[in-house]
Amino acid sequence: MTANVNEELQLLRAEIAAAAARLIAEDGADYNTAKRKAARQILGDTQPPLNLLPDNAQIEAEVRLYQSLFHADTQPARLFRLRTLAVDIMEGLQKFHPYLSGSVLNGTAGPHDDIHLQLFADSAKEVEIFLLNRNLQIDISETPHFKGPRYGMVETVSFMWHKEGVHAALYEMDDLRGAVKTRSDGKLARADIAAVRALLVNSTHPPSP
Questions:
Q1: Closest Cα to residue 22, out of 10, 33, 11?
Q2: Torsion of CA 65, 69, 75, 77, to 10 degrees
Q3: Using an 8 Å Cβ cutoff, are 107 and 79 in contact?
Q4: Helix (H, G, I), strand (E, B) or coil at 50
Q5: What is the pTM of this model?
Q6: Nearest by Cα to 22 from 55, 57, 80, 71
Q7: Is the pLDDT of residue 39 over 90?
Q8: By C-alpha distance, which of 67, 159, 179 is closest to 114?
Q9: Are 16 and 54 in contact (CB under 8 A)?
Q10: b/e per residue, 142-175, with b = 16+ CB within 10 A?
């Protein structure tokens, strides 16, 4: 591959990442959907080679940039609110070893983002009964396992908390052993309640008055 071709691929990849970031920040699209839509916007119906599509880390970096350029006056307060609510929810779910993940953890959460948790219990039914006993209306769906596609899907319960959506993926207790690993870029893939509290304490963007 010549230097010019490689440079062109990098520019296209960056363009797709930027377009995907806009879809995530403005429309609330998930990363995979945003990536596909962005590729179609730029390439039309041409099927892009896999090495052309940006990875999630590159898109996340573009989301951060987009938020800083277009939502700097509102996004920090929004993130602070969601992290505060996440701590509140996690305190109530401590018996299920809650971890925070997703955009509320990595700091890119915007107006369309919900709170994503990972819970660990002997059975999913135990968590469902716990939530129902607290008069929460739950919906049940499935989420890919954080260990990868070969581990299948895990049951996920969704409910509203102070007018914000919460999605809790329900894992087996054995999965706790792999829960504290970092991502390939060295950042936390999930955080326990102590780590989320530390994010709030160390926040440089307190909520707007």
A1: 33
A2: 120
A3: yes
A4: helix
A5: 0.88
A6: 71
A7: yes
A8: 159
A9: yes
A10: ebebbeeeeeeebbbbbbeeeebebbbbbbeeeb
Helix or strand or coil: residue 35? helix
**What would the two tokens of residue 8 be?**
């062109």
Pull the structure tokens for residue 60: 């996340």
Which distant-in-sequence residues (6+ apart) come within 8 Å of 89 by Cβ? 98, 115, 117, 161, 166
Q: Cα(6)–Cα(86) distance, rounded to whole angstroms? A: 42
Determine the average pLDDT of the residues in 6-31. 93
Dmax (CA) for the chain in angstroms is 63
State yes or no: pLDDT of 200 exceeds 80.
yes
The alpha carbon of residue 100 and the mean position of all alpha carbons in its chain are separated, in whole angstroms, by: 9
Given its phi and psi angles, is residue 186 left (phi above 0), alpha (psi -120 to 50 degrees) or beta?
left
State the Cα–Cα distance between residues 94 and 178, nearest whole angstrom: 18
Each residue of 102-144: pLDDT tens digit?
A: 999 999 999 999 999 999 999 999 999 999 999 999 999 999 9
d(CA 192, CA 94): 10
Q: What is the 3-state secondary structure (H, E, C) of 98-130?
A: CEEEHHHHHCCCCCCCCEEEEEEECCHHHHHHH
